[in-house]
Amino acid sequence: MKTTWDDKEEKFYEREVFSSIDFTETPLKNWEFYKCKFEKCIFSNCDLSNITFEDCTFDGCDFSMASVKNSGFRNAVFTECKLLGVNFSPCSKLMFSFQFEKCNLNYAVFLGRNLKNTPFIDCSLKEADFSDADLTACKFTQSDLTLTRFSNTNLEKADFRGALNFSIEPEYNKMKKAKFNVFQLEALLYKYQLDVD
Question: By three-state DSSP, how is residue 192 classified?
């Protein structure tokens, strides 16, 4: 069912479609969305505290600088979305699972979060911060990791094949069975200034 946003009093939405809606003028605290679809919606700079998105999809939406304190995202799928500078660290720990494809996550923060098995496919993650995060078995296929921070990060079984512009210091991260292309190994050794042919 397609919904036009009219600031209803309802706090729970199930299987609704929201298209081209600007949520920046509407207080959304404590709302719940279940199996909803959001198309080209604007959430930039919104306070999304205590909102729950379960099994929702987001296509072409803008979440730049949104506040997500205690927000829940379970099985949230983001495609071609802007999530510039979003700090995911204060999100709910109980509802925190994503898929990202063709998204702009520059300057996003995932400090200390469990992101096991999360796919970041063809995303821009420039200067994102994954310090102290668990990225076990994550995929970064075709993603740009320029100046992305990995410190005390669990990267075991993470798949970096096809990832671009990353620099990771193996001695400060767990990297057992992480996957790389042969030509990417230089990015793991850059700080040692080795001459590799």
Answer: helix
